[in-house]
Design goal:
alpha+beta; D-Maltodextrin-Binding Protein, domain 2; 2 domains; Fructose-1,6-Bisphosphatase, Chain A, domain 1; about 260 residues; 8-stranded mixed beta sheet
């Protein structure tokens, strides 16, 4: 299957949706609280509406699942798009520039195309199976760091991480890793581009990581569960470079 048209579409779509969000960025936009006590803004809604409309126009019959408007069934074809119009809404409403627009394409149950755009930074990260991973038109690669003591480990929220595994950060600290909270969408971007080695989160929905399985795979790294199962299932998430995968998974599993 020629995935280039899907990659081009996803990349263009993420960029255009990102420009919509920029119309509300750093304007003091109001946030409402959803039932799960997570914030949402008009920018989240407008960007997802736009993405959905473009997918339905370009690929009628494809299924869609998004954070704000749920699941739309397809007509039986094995394509499903995942949408997170703003991953990092808490950052967005505080005018922190580390949020992303995430779009993934699942084909027969496997994320095969993905685009992640970071509008305030104008950074685009995209990939498709067999076509490589690209960072603003340059090839993206994970780092070659092979010792945890030299690794940068990022997460979205150390407090939430501790609720799942109370000693995880302590275990990384004992290995002398550099611990930072450049999380949400941007943490996985940092791993894929070799600027961090590990990104961990205790729980993600499919729209939170939609493009990252293929992005990390094509960048030469790993994305999957804490236990080392590659791919995507709702729950805990781990991204790391290839050189550290075995040691990192072993460290992660010491708390289970």
């Amino acid at each position: 299957m020629n995935l280039q048209p899907y990659l081009d579409f996803a990349t263009s779509l993420a960029y255009r949706a990102g420009r919509i969000t920029m119309g509300y960025y750093n304007t003091g936009v109001r946030a409402d609280m959803k039932e799960n006590n997570e914030p949402v803004t008009i920018a989240d809604h407008e960007a997802e509406k736009f993405i959905r409309a473009e997918i339905e126009r370009q690929y009628p019959g494809h299924a869609i699942i998004g954070e704000e408007f749920g699941h739309t069934n397809g007509n039986g074809v094995p394509f499903r798009w995942t949408i997170d119009p703003i991953d990092g809404t808490k950052s967005f409403i505080r005018s922190v520039p580390l949020y992303g627009v995430l779009i993934g394409l699942e084909i027969e149950g496997k994320i095969s195309v993905g685009a992640a755009y970071y509008p305030p930074l104008d950074e685009m990260l995209c990939a498709a199976d067999g076509l490589g991973c690209w960072w603003n038109s340059r090839r993206a690669h994970v780092s070659t760091v092979d010792e945890i003591s030299q690794a940068c480990v990022v997460t979205s929220d150390f407090q939430r991480l501790a609720e799942k595994d109370a000693t995880l950060t302590e275990r990384f600290a004992k290995k002398k890793a550099l611990l930072r909270t450049w999380g949400d969408a941007y943490g996985y971007m940092l791993v894929a581009t070799g600027r961090a080695e590990v990104c961990v989160d205790p729980f993600l929905d499919i729209w939170d990581y939609g493009p990252y399985p293929v992005i990390l795979r094509e960048a030469g790294g790993y994305f999957g569960t804490w236990s080392g199962q590659e791919g995507h299932t709702p729950g805990d998430a781990l991204a790391c470079n290839a050189a550290l995968k075995q040691e990192v998974v072993k460290l992660m599993m010491q708390g289970s």
